[in-house]
Amino acid sequence: MTRQLNSKFPVVAPSMLKCDFGNMESEIVRLEEAGASLLHLDVMDGHFVPNLSYGPMVIQRVRERTELVLDAHLMISDPEKYLDEYVKAGCDWITVHIEAVPDPREILKRIREAGSLAGISLNPKTPVSAISSLKGLVDIVLVMSVEPGFGGQSFIPESVERVAEVREVFGETAIVSIDGGIGPQTIPLVAPHQVDVYVAGSSIFDQSSYADAIREMTETAQSFSPST
Ligand SMILES: O=C(CO)[C@H](O)[C@H](O)COP(=O)(O)O
């Protein structure tokens, strides 16, 4: 059974790619105390993207230390082969890339059957039409607003129209998430299109107060929310 978020959308999700890997436990505690409601786990295999991060063994240790929702973003080739390990590690949300799995219907079904939320992500150059037939089969659409692989890149401005298109195609059937170059300056660009999850690395981990960074960005996002 997937864990529930402890707050309503929109939320800011710390991207653990930018945390201090030597002190992951204290980073998790700091993020919990700062009010984070989920942790975004950037899984990179050095093949699908030109960088390596961590895999299921590290995620399992993270799972043992927190009850926050774990949002695994699999930037890997052949996710079908490794899926069971991420399920076993305790990921609540599991997102795969359309560029890695051109027909993802089977893996999305497997993710849901395992009790997790199923997500699809698309790179900046992939048209939204590549995923539009997945409406009803996905719980999350993760729009990459940088080329995946590294934190600290600049937000690609064309991502604004892409988020709008995703929201138009998927309506309320999917959680819409955006990842890459997200911070106080870029949230107002995409927030009018009802983004649910803002994945943020540098704009949290480069700040002295994680709590202030998360609170300020969440308030900015909420100020665009129709229900506020
Ligand atoms: O998936 C990612 C890169 O592939 C990261 O989540 C993302 O880049 C976060 O870092 P920043 O907020 O610094 O851009």
Automatic annotation (TrEMBL):
Binding site for substrate: S15, H73, G149, F150, G151, G152, D179, G180, G181, G201, S202
Record pathway: Carbohydrate degradation
Xref: CDD domains: RPE
Gene3D superfamilies from the UniProt entry: Aldolase class I
Keywords tagged on the record: Carbohydrate metabolism, Cobalt, Isomerase, Manganese, Metal-binding, Zinc
GO molecular function terms listed in the Swiss-Prot or TrEMBL record: D-ribulose-phosphate 3-epimerase activity; metal ion binding
Pfam families tied to this protein: Ribul_P_3_epim
Known catalytic reactions: D-ribulose 5-phosphate = D-xylulose 5-phosphate
Domain of life: Bacteria
The EC number(s) this enzyme carries: 5.1.3.1
Protein name stated in the entry: Ribulose-phosphate 3-epimerase
Catalytic residue positions: D42, D179
Protein family: Belongs to the ribulose-phosphate 3-epimerase family.
PROSITE patterns reported for this sequence: RIBUL_P_3_EPIMER_1, RIBUL_P_3_EPIMER_2
Role according to the record: Catalyzes the reversible epimerization of D-ribulose 5-phosphate to D-xylulose 5-phosphate.
Residues that bind a divalent metal cation: H40, D42, H73, D179
